[in-house]
Amino acid sequence: MERGIRSPRILPQGITYPAYGMDLSTSLTWNKSWTAVLLLSDVFNTRRFGNTIQSETLFQEFIRRREVRFLRLTVSYRFGNAEASLFQRIRRSGAGGGGMDMGF
Fold first, then answer.
1. Cα 56 from Cα 8, distance rounded (Å)
2. In the prediction, which pLDDT does 19 show?
3. Long-range contacts of range 27-34, CB-CB < 8 Å, 24 or more positions apart?
4. Could you list the residue range(s) of the whole structural domain that residue 44 is in?
5. How many CB atoms lie within 10 A of CB 19?
6. Residue 103 within any structural domain of the chain
7. Given its phi and psi angles, is residue 92 left (phi above 0), alpha (psi -120 to 50 degrees) or beta?
8. Number of domains the chain is built from
9. What's the CA gap between 8 and 96, in Å, rounded?
10. What are the start-end ranges of the H helices in the chain?
């Protein structure tokens, strides 16, 4: 779960509105190869951005939405197995020592 909160900021001629929203996600892995992730963005449909500018001759109120609430499903498949012995062989052979050995 991700929550984002931005408090009002003071501008030279006005203020920004507070911005807040919450995302919710869950994942499921089966057979050690398949993974599904379900994401709901802006759960309460409250994510808005805006500001008020006020001077002697102007009053402007601006509110916008960058994106609306959406639901996304991602399914991925992992090919092969992670082989830890490969990393141990690289470490033992001396390669990967930071890239500083030029062999001169």
1. 22
2. 80
3. 32/78, 33/77, 33/78, 34/75, 34/76, 34/77, 34/78
4. 2-93
5. 16
6. no
7. alpha
8. 1
9. 48
10. 84-93
Residue 49 lies in a domain: yes
CA distance 64 to 50: 6
Distance of CA 3 to the CA centre of its chain: 11
Cα gap 51→12, rounded to integer Å: 12
Q: Give the integer Cα–Cα distance in Å for 7 and 64.
A: 16
* Beta strand extents in 1-104 (DSSP E only): 2-6, 10-11, 14-16, 19-30, 34-41, 49-54, 59-64, 70-77
Four-point Cα dihedral 62, 66, 71, 77, nearest 10:
-170
Owner of token pair 């807040």? 20
Q: Return the higher-pLDDT residue of 101 and 43.
A: 43
Residue 80 binned pLDDT confidence (cut-offs 50, 70, 90): confident
Report which residue type is found at 94: G
Asked, for residue 38, whether it belongs to a domain, the answer is yes
Tokens 């919710």 sit on residue:
24
